[in-house]
Amino acid sequence: MSSYPLTARIDMDIAMGVVALAFIFLVLLLLALNGIQFYFYYRKKGPEIPPQENLDLDLEATPVPTVEPPHQRLCILGEAVAIRLVVMAPTGHSTAVDPTLVTKVLDKAYPGLGAQYNHDKPQLKVWPSQLSKHGFPPTFFRNAKVAKEDTELSRWWLVAGEVMLGKKAYLIGLALWTDEPCGLGKVNVEGFHWIQYFSVLAVNPVQGEQRAAADVEIPGHTSRGD
User: Fold this and answer.
1) pLDDT score recorded for residue 7
2) DSSP readout, 176-207?
3) 82 and 42 in one domain?
4) CA nearest 75: which of 176, 160, 155, 154?
5) pLDDT higher than 90, residue 100
6) Phi and psi of 53, rounded to 5°?
7) How far apart are CA 53 and CA 55, in angstroms?
8) Whether residues 36 and 79 fall in one domain
9) Both 156 and 68 in a single domain?
10) Buried-most residue among 6, 8, 41, 89 (CB within 10 A)?
11) Dihedral (C-alpha) 97, 98, 103, 106: value to the nearest 10 degrees?
């Protein structure tokens, strides 16, 4: 029996294998080229950012706490405050936040914020997802409208930062109301360090004496003005 047919079949199998490998290589090359084109296109253009809804915050329209202050007074940098507004927003491309978790998120930021929220019953605003956690504080400060004359002192403190609850990040903005006019304060909480700014005062209801429950250190980047 001649060996020619066997050799021909081997040569044909080799040729078909080479063609198949060449076809696979061509497909992979096309996919790679498309991937490179897609990468550079979106790197240059960037993702399309949907228009933001109106984020204006009229602080003067928020409810003023009508109940007596609690015996445990929440303080920011030593000044007793009440909560009049809370803003919650997800970070990046996360889904919308669950507003029913607001007290848990606040207590994660600083223990006692959740109880103060339940006591003061402030207004709650849920914002759409913010693409930059670093851009959230200035956005919150810019949209918080405070009505006061240049010669008047303000009773507002504005605080904004990030809070981690489990594996989910939340952006939180607080509009706090002081007992007395003291000047507009703005605090950008960096690195989840809410405890640096807040403390609790235990108030004696009979003698009116106050004692600090936590020392307060004023970081250098806190801004404040009349």
Assistant:
1) 67
2) EEESS---EEEEE--TT-GGGTEEEEEE-TTT
3) no
4) 176
5) yes
6) -75, 170
7) 6
8) no
9) yes
10) 89
11) -10
Q: Give the total number of structural domains in the chain.
A: 2
Which tokens belong to 57? 């915050």
DSSP 3-state of 171: strand
3-state secondary structure of 84: strand
Do 104 and 216 lie in one domain? The reply is: yes
User: Rounded to a whole number, what is the distance in angstroms from the first to the last CA of the chain?
Assistant: 107
Residues 218, 158 within the same domain = yes
Question: 43 and 61: one domain?
Answer: no
For residues 184 and 224, is the Cβ–Cβ distance under 8 A?
Answer: yes
In this structure, are 41 and 66 located in the same domain? no
Residue 179 contacts residue 80 (beta carbons within 8 Å): yes
Give mean pLDDT, residues 60-82: 86
Q: Name 125's Cβ contacts closer than 8 Å, sequence gap at least 6.
A: 57, 85, 86, 87, 88
Predicted local distance difference test score (pLDDT) of residue 48: 41
pTM for this entry: 0.66
Query: CA angle at residue 83 from 96 to 87, to 5 degrees?
Result: 20
